[in-house]
Design goal:
CATH class of the largest domain: Alpha Beta
Largest sheet: 8 strands, mixed
Distance between the termini: 87 Å
Radius of gyration: 29 Å
Number of helices: 23
CATH superfamily of the largest domain: MutL, C-terminal domain, regulatory subdomain
Strand content: 15-25%
């Protein structure tokens, strides 16, 4: 390179980054934690044709990650090139880039790892007499020497982020990091059933699964309860095929931990495609329940792009609506064939053109004003927005409560109404803000007189409780109310380290997944403060001999696992400490359920306990517990007063 004169160097502010710095920046995208390293390396093993992969971690991957495979191996020349940035054996032409059929393709993984850890590679091809070992340290030239070994490749990653203290400091606890690793290993096991996968945590074998059908693999990884509740899903539409299983409604969870979606064997995250499963279960599950599914889509790689996210979790489809339709129809058909749902499936054409025009009920110069309605989601969009924008919407996004087809630019907020408002002409406050803004009106609830008669308490559809007061009526969500009561009682007992426990006549043994077992170890003291008496056994199981006094009787195994699942979800979405999240998880699973019939005495007892709570107006998740309707509001509705 031509040397610049001192004068030119002084005037220059733009420089080319050294390779080492570039690799560290790439590492920030590709290597976020030990789990990221394992994901990249195992995918490399699969791409190398390995049908057996062993993963060993020490100190949750911070100290050591050791991967062993029986793949094709590398020559000395390939081994030397493998740690260079953008070095890859999977992309040769632009056509290859537009139709990616391998898991890894960017050639950044090994280069990124070498910039933040000590890396050792050992590799041998079957046709070679011996293999080669490469040792690389940051800022140093790699050393390569021959070695005797079996055909395949071994990778050792030691002291991850040792030279980037800020990155290492932001890693979570060993138990949390191990949960990320075990979740990724479970996804590999479920998406690669023709491979043998062995997973060790230090010297402890977590699982060793051999090639087997998907339902057998689900039994080995997710347990007998899940495997016994599987419903097969199979469908094809044009060049898309879908295979896998869904779970019966009774194995639905409060979290998304039982949802696995794969595209050509690659684990992906897609809110819209997951929602296609939700809509099929719409009338079979409560709003907070999440159906279990293990589904794999087979699609021509030219019809989607995985190169939109450094970890390749997100995928951009050429036409996502067709895939949405396929999943929805397949899951709905499976539920119908299992006598769990009735007919009425949406056709593929409904998803190609989901918007229809209806009369808004408002007059315009040309008669009835027309609005666009999404026939799938119920979204109402006024004609004040450009029609072109609606027809160009191809990405289905949203949260658990509302999904819309969208693309930039987005319609103005005031142009979107609910279908209820369009039909009935009502005007409501947005979301739950009005409820929270009115909480101060409930401060006098405890002081109101309740008529001590059976007619003062009654239950609506085994879901809501009505309590007559001197000023009107209180409407109480029975599950949310009991949840608040148990939550406050649990928090107090945990803080005092004095829990009320009921001993079981016969101890219950519970088989746990790797993630669940890490939760138990992490929460061992808090679970005992909660009231559980248990012992951790050697075979990834625990034996429970006592449960909290508020725990559901006769269902100790399922409720305990559900509490762990819910705790995992709360750790991601609730900005509170572990003890609070555990108490919230326990109260949710132990509370009276919607659909449970209550006597007059039970309703009154529940009401009295609720009024003794410090915060009776909201459940631990922030949803309202009580709605108050005054006599004056009734009088206005019936025209008695203006």
């Amino acid at each position: 390179m031509q040397q610049l004169s001192p004068e030119k160097q002084q005037n220059r502010t733009i420089n080319i980054l050294p390779d080492f710095i570039s690799n560290q920046i790439a590492a920030g995208e590709v290597v976020q934690r030990p789990e990221s390293v394992i994901k990249e390396l195992v995918e490399n093993s699969f791409d190398a044709g390995a049908d057996s992969v062993i993963v060993i971690v020490k100190d949750s991957g911070k100290q050591l990650i050791h991967i062993v495979d029986n793949g094709r191996g590398m020559s000395r020349e390939d081994l030397e090139l493998s740690i260079k940035r953008h070095a890859t054996s999977k992309i040769y032409t632009q056509d290859d880039l537009e139709s990616i059929r391998t898991f890894g393709f960017r050639g950044e993984a090994l280069a990124s790892i070498t910039s933040v850890a000590y890396l050792e590679l050992r590799s041998r091809r079957k046709e070679d007499e011996y293999g080669w070992k490469l040792v690389s340290e940051p800022m140093k030239e790699p050393v390569i020497e021959p070695i005797n070994m079996d055909p395949g490749t071994q990778v050792f990653v030691r002291n991850l982020f040792y030279n980037v203290p800020a990155r290492r400091k932001f890693l979570k606890s060993n138990i949390t990091e191990f949960r990320y690793i075990s979740d990724t290993m479970i996804r590999f096991a479920l998406s690669n059933t023709n491979h043998r996968l062995t997973f060790y945590d230090d010297d402890t074998l977590i699982f060793d699964v051999k090639p087997e059908p998907l339902d057998s693999r689900i039994r080995a990884i997710l347990g007998d309860k899940t495997a016994n509740a599987l419903i097969k899903v199979k469908s094809e539409h044009y060049d898309v095929s879908l295979n896998g299983f869904i779970g019966q409604p009774h194995v639905a969870k409060q979290t998304k931990s039982g949802q696995y979606l794969f595209l050509n064997g690659r684990s992906i995250v897609s809110k819209s495609l997951s929602y296609a499963v939700y809509t099929a279960f719409e009338h079979l599950l409560e709003k907070s329940a999440n159906p279990l599914f293990v589904l794999n889509l087979e699609l021509d790689p030219a019809k989607y792009d995985v190169n939109v996210h450094p970890q390749k979790h997100e995928v951009k489809f050429e036409d996502e609506r067709i895939i949405y339709s396929l999943i929805h129809r397949a899951v709905s058909s499976a539920l119908i064939e299992s006598n769990l749902a009735s007919g009425g499936l949406l056709g593929a054409e409904d998803f190609r053109a989901p918007f229809i025009q209806v009369n808004s009920g408002s007059e315009s110069k040309n008669g009835q004003e027309k609005v666009l309605v999404n026939s799938i989601t119920g979204e109402i969009i006024s004609n004040t927005s450009s029609k072109e924008n609606f027809h160009n919407r191809t990405s289905y996004q949203g949260n658990n409560n509302h999904f819309t087809w969208k693309n930039e630019p987005r319609p103005e907020t005031n142009a979107v109404q609910s279908a209820f408002d369009l039909v009935f002409g009502g005007r409501t406050n947005s979301n739950n803000e009005a409820n929270y803004n009115q909480l101060h009106k409930f401060n006098s609830l405890r002081d109101q007189d309740i008529t001590e008669s059976k007619s003062s308490f009654w239950q609506l559809h085994r879901k809501y409780l009505f309590v007559q007061t001197e000023k009107g009526v209180l409407i109480i969500d029975q599950h949310a109310a009991h949840e608040r009561i148990i939550y406050e009682r649990t928090i107090k007992s945990m803080e005092k380290h004095f829990a009320s426990t009921q001993e079981l006549l016969f101890p219950v043994e519970i088989k746990l997944t790797p993630s669940e077992l890490t939760f138990v170890r992490e929460l061992e003291n808090d679970l005992k403060d909660l009231g559980y008496i248990f012992q951790i056994k050697q075979d990834n199981s625990i034996e429970i001999s006592g449960v909290p006094i508020d725990a559901t009787n006769g269902n100790e195994s399922n409720s305990f696992k559900e509490i762990l699942d819910l705790f995992d979800e709360y750790q991601k979405v609730r900005n509170t400490n572990k003890r609070d999240n555990l108490a919230a998880s326990f109260s949710c699973k132990s509370a009276i359920k919607t659909g449970q019939s209550l006597s007059q005495e039970e309703i009154q007892h529940l009401y009295n306990d609720l009024m003794r709570c410090e915060i009776p107006y909201a459940c631990p998740h922030g949803r309202p517990v009580i709605v108050e309707l005054s006599l004056m509001e009734f009088d206005k509705k019936f025209g008695r007063i203006l």
